[in-house]
Amino acid sequence: MEKKMRFGIKSKIIIGYLIVIVCLFIAFIVLNSQISSLQKERNFIIDHDIEVHDLTNRIEKHLLDMETGQRGYIITGEASYLEPYNSAASSWEKDYNALYQLLNNNPNQQEKLEKIKGSIQDWIEAAGEPTIALKKENNTKELQQFFEKDPGRQYMDDIRSQFTSFRNVEKKSTETRATELDEKNQKIKIGLYGLLLFVTLISLAIAIVLSNSIVNTIKEVTQTIKRITASKGELKGRIKVRSNDEIKDLGIATNALLENIEERNWLQTNIAHAVTMYQGIASVDKLAEKFLFTVSEMTGASFGAFYVREENDKGDLFVKQAAFADRKGDAGRESFLIGEGLIGQAALEKRTLVINDVPDTYQLIASGLGDVKPKSIFIVPVLFEDEVIAVIELASLHEFTVLEQELISQVIETFGLTINGVIRRMEIARLLKESQAMTEELQAQSEELQTQSEELQMQSEELRMINEQLEERTKDAEEKSFELEAAKEDLEEKAYQLELNSQYKSEFLANMSHELRTPLNSILILSEMLEENSAKTLSEDEEEYARIIHSSGKDLLALINDILDLSKVESGKLDVLLAEMNMSELPDQIERNFSHVAEQKKVQLKINKAQDVPNIIHTDEKRFQQIVKNLLSNAFKFTESGSVTVSIQRVADHRLTTAMRTVDTDCWLEIAVADTGIGIPKEKHQLIFEAFQQADGATVRKYGGTGLGLSICSEFAKLLGGWISLSSEVGKGSTFTLYLPSLSNGLVDYEKVNFAYEEVAVSIEEAEPEAEITEIDHPVQPVEPSLPDDENVFQDKRVLIVDDDQRNIFALKTALAKQGMTIMTAHNGIECLEMMKNSEPFDLILMDIMMPQMDGYEAMQKIRGELKLVDLPIIALTAKAMKNDREKCLEAGASDYISKPLDLNQLFSVMRVWLVN
């Protein structure tokens, strides 16, 4: 018989929703097409008709200006009245041509425009130009004769009449188009109502079919459960479900639950019965007999023996106190030592033994008709305070079931306390008799002790007087000791305050980093998504706003990192990681990072690398790159025109000073960054290397900045065993030179480096470079980043975001949802663990560290430890980017670590690696 295909409730609901969504999608496409057509017609009416009316009014205005200027000049003779006339005479034909071109699809209106043009030209020729000429000739007589007839008035009346007729036709045309647009709009509205009605009917039909298929099955299950409930505790009934879906799973689980409840009821009833039978028993042998009888009745055991521990010279001996189905006292041995036989071994190991393969030589179970071999043996030790105080052995004609074994085990859990209580009560009764005899003897001894007590009291009075004298001397010594201790505590307090201030500073910077990076993370992610404008819903101005927000957020992140780096350097907590660095790639890296900056500022970028520069040096590449990028950024910032030149060369041997030679290094490098910018006054050369300092206030106002870059560069150079020198002239530019050793044998002593800097400061300025320089000229090409296709990797992956900040959750959820992922969120570690226990497995977890109730460290440890999810990728996200944070996250169970604010490309790259692996 073929297995019935499983068609779950979820599948039914999803198919129903898919059908409704398809119908809605088709309706949306049809409606969108009609609305687009309607929008085009509306735009044509607005743009075309308004432009026609506007040009018509402008032509009339030009004609009015001409008429007004003509009459003003004739009346006053002032030449200034001719300016509007001449201006209008040169402009009206341009507007006329534009209007004529706009009506190229309406020949009738163009014909009327041609008549208007002829009338205007006739007025100019008959009334405009002649009268102005007569006025210029000062021919008043002919002017008077002309205005007595005044033919220009008739021309003007004709022109106005023609314009009125022209505008009336255009107005009727606009009204006609508007009427057609209204009719089309009404048709779209009717069609929309029809589509909505159609989709509604389909949705109702699907809902009725699905609900009937689900509700009918649930009713069957409910009726079965009600019948079981009405049976008043009778749990024999079972649920039968015909459908092959989740409800069938519910029925199976409910049946299993009923069986389990039935077994538990039996178990609890028998346990309660066993416990009640202990009451009122005062001796161990009666307790053992009662226990064996009760347990044998519950489990069907046919044979049994009860042994209780007693102490003797040989050690712990277990003695038989009772037996069940005993035949002339041969039910088991009378006693045994711990570790002797199976029963002794069970007592030694404190564990229960169940033997189903019983040997033929085992004690037979006697009955009236004969002896029967048992099928199963059950040996169980009784513990009290982790010590075995009794052992029980049972034998049965059937194998002990798991439920029977569990019953005995649970009864035994509290039985040790009962046995110990009975033994203690027997021991107390014995001791009570002995104590009564001893009380009489003690009473006689107490009278003797009272006499001795009076003698001791007199001696104690003498000792008290001696003690008072000693206390006075001790007091003087304690006062002097107190003064010394106060001075010591004062010094220790000052030392502690210094250490505490350093700790508070580190904690403050860590917390500041967290508080700033947390909202900054949301700003950067959301602004980057707005800048991409994938939905094409933003205007160009709004895209520019998003770019400005994203750029400002990156600037703020750079400032936070600078402050943290400076703090780490000052506190001596910045690690220097020495490794090989490829110097042959440095020119290409500089070109790639700063060519677009040079192109934007129209400044020439030159890179010169000497041939004697080694390809490989040993230094901290990350700190080296930070120094070079800071120097180049400053050079481009303060250079408006000219060039920025980077020169890389090896310091020649004859230029090395004595102190530089004492440094254990392969070679010394000289990296000079020269610009043609504003320059720096000589008295400010030392000031600019201090934190939060710039040359003057005008520089800050014009170029911005915090004054941290050069301070950090100087400190990094010292950590790498080098230094930075400066030569500059105001108005001509500056040259910052980094001197750096190749540290193949580890870090150098800073005292030697500082002395070398002071010694070489003068000699390097005087020396001329002799190394052969090769200029590297690369074409300036902006690098376009390529975005990988993550669809196959991220599609339908279940991701859990654990973060207490709603802004971060919203930003991450929006970004990941666009990649096709299924997102779940938790606000702390406790919610995270509950969701992982109660929901389907996740493919990846994004875990914030700083959270209330349970932080990310503890949550990751519980996921790896308690939930045993060793292979589940967990990426730690934290804004508290301090020393050893990465190591702490990895030790707690994180698969990888990213600090906030997040770079989406970096996040997607890390997620891709772990999801693929």
Question: Can I get a quick summary?
Answer:
The chain is α+β, with helices and mostly antiparallel strands. 61% of the residues lie in helices and 14% in strands. Helix 3 packs across helix 5 (151-230), helix 6 packs across helix 9 (402-532) and helix 9 crosses helix 18.
The number of strands is 21
> How many angstroms does the end-to-end distance come to?
41 Å
Protein structure class: alpha+beta
Radius of gyration: 50 Å
**Proportion of strand residues:** 5-15%
For the biggest β-sheet, the strand order reads: 3-2-1-8-7-4
> How many H/I helices?
22
Helix content: 55-70%
Catalogue the unreliable spans: 695-704, 755-791
Give the integer mean of the pLDDT values.
76
Largest beta-sheet details? 6 strands, antiparallel
Describe the global form.
extended
